[in-house]
Amino acid sequence: MNRLAKLEEALAYPEAFFAVFNSLKDLPSAEVREIAREFTKRSARSKADALNRIWARHFDLMTAVAKAKSVDGRSAA
């Protein structure tokens, strides 16, 4: 399984995602940037930018899940 697929599969599981994310740090810049482009649908200028974009997508998803759980189906109205 390639790393992009592993990232997608681990998105909902913070510990698993963190392990896959850390493994990206050992890859060449071009490969990390390509993974980030596929994962986030946006291109990155550097390896650091690519890693930040990947982490931001994960963080946004985890934030949305937490907000949905806190509302628990209730309306603000």
Please tell me about this protein's structure.
- The longest helix has 25 residues.
- The mean pLDDT is 89.
- The protein has 4 helices and no strands.
- The relative contact order is 0.13.
- It is elongated.
- Helix 3 packs parallel to helix 4.
- It is mainly α and 77 residues long.
- Helix content is 73%, strand content 0%.
- It has one domain.
Which secondary structure elements does this structure contain, and how are they paired or packed?
Elements: H1 3-10, H2 14-24, H3 29-40, H4 47-71
Mean pLDDT: 89
Radius of gyration: 14 Å
Biggest pleated sheet: none
H/I helix tally: 4
The first-to-last residue Cα distance is 46 Å
Weakly predicted, low-confidence segments: none
Q: How would you spell out the order of helices and strands?
A: HHHH
Features of the shown structure:
single chain, 77 residues, mainly alpha, 4 helices
The gist of it:
This protein is an all-alpha fold and 77 residues long.
